[in-house]
Structure formats: C-alpha cells, structure tokens
C-alpha cells in the first residue's frame, strides 16, 4: 500500500502560469496581463487561473505526474494533495484515490458561505472558454481585448448564490468562508483507506510538503509511520526533508525538489 502526500512544491503559482503562458499562448498571456493590471478586471484572475488549469500544465510538472502515475498504476494507493488544480484527475489518477483538502477550481460555493451547497464550475468555465477561444486571434488589439474582458466580467457576475443572491466563488481554502463539504466525502474514503493500512506494509511518500499546513499531511503522516511498525517513509523536500527521531529508523529524508526528482527519472516503487 502506498500513501502519497503532495505539498507546496506541487502548487502552480501565479508566476509559473505567467511564464508558461508567455511561451505557449501570447494572446492569452496579454489578456491575462491586462486583467491583472486593470482594477476593473482583477476579479477575473481566479476564473483565468481555472481556465489555465483546465487547458495547460507546466512541462516539468506534467512529466512528474506521468512518472508518478506509472509508479502507482495498479497499486493500492491514496494521494492527499495540497494542490487546488485538476491535474491529478487529468493525469489519469483514480478519483476515488485522491483528496484535495484545500479545495478545487472545479467546484463553486457561495462567496459568503451562506449554505452548504457545492456546485460544479463546469458551466461557468464553458462560457469563459467560448469567450477566450475567440480572443485568441486578437493580436494585441487593445479595444477588442477590453471588450472580451468586459464580457467575461458579465459572465462571472451572472453566477449568483441562489440562496442569498450574493456572488459565487471557487471552492477554495482561501475563499472568504471555505465550505469544506466540497472534499469531505473523499476525506472519509481516505480515513477508511488509512484504517486498512494498520499492521500492513505501507510505503509513505511525502513529496514537497513544507510547513504551511502541517496538520493536513506532515504531522498525520509522521503519526501513521510512528504507529505502523511496518511502514516506511520517504520525505522529499528541497528544505524541509528532515525526519523526526521517533521514526528515524523507518524514515528517510531526501534533500531535493520533489517535482524535479519525479520529472527527471522513473522512480521505482
Ligand atoms: Zn449565499
């Protein structure tokens, strides 16, 4: 059985999105930059981030996921990830074996969190996609760019909470009031899976998990390894690779960036 934790090193930052788009799609790059620079359009940044996650992935990360997928395929695994993109699903990992406790751009909630309903963001993203696909032939035309951005704002504004009439936001940990209902069902599946690892041989791979949300992966993984004498742990991180003394016999720290490691070689489980 393999328990995998993906941490901060796997999170695609804003800067990475900009760098990647500059290489891959200049039209979108300019459109996104304009949204960043004009106050009236800044509310589009989350929806553009979601659009990026639906359609692009940085190359190194893609290779890392591919190699990890190869390593886990056919095995009894579970992945807990701090990421909020849709890459695990897109790269072929089994939905029922992954949980993203920090939320996802694939789901929406009331911005004020007034009720526990979680919706899919698919309809919104389809509308945005239609507008942005047209925008790919703008060739830097400023008036047209603004026109497209205005239409995007209108689409975003048309999505309202059906209970309070306020705006909707993506179902993310950094939302105004995060509704955890979005991931709780999978979390229950994870807990059940984890119970099944008791007294069984377990390989724990903690990849790129820093100290930002230690109670989600880092501390519970240590606890799991401490209580299961048949567990082994590999902690891979550029800076926070150190392992506790209590589990030092069965835990190995690897000082390197986990995405670099997984992207460069086929890691044999
Ligand atoms: Zn509401």
Task: Characterise this structure.
The chain has one domain (2-264). It is 42% helix and 17% strand. The protein has helices spanning 14-24, 26-37, 45-55, 59-72, 87-90, 122-134, 142-158, 181-195, 218-227, 258-264; strands at 2-6, 77-81, 98-99, 103-110, 119-120, 168-172, 202-207, 231-237, 251-255. The protein has a 6-stranded parallel beta sheet with strand order 3-2-1-7-8-9, with helices on one face. A hairpin with an 8-residue loop joins strand 4 (103-110) and strand 5. Helix 6 packs antiparallel against helix 7 (142-158). The radius of gyration is 20 Å and the shape is globular. The mean pLDDT is 94. Bound molecules: zinc ion. Zinc ion is lined by residues 110, 112, 114-115, 161, 163-164, 166.
Q: What attributes characterize this protein structure?
A:
single chain; alpha/beta; binds zinc ion; 269 residues; 9 strands; six-stranded parallel beta sheet; three-stranded antiparallel beta sheet
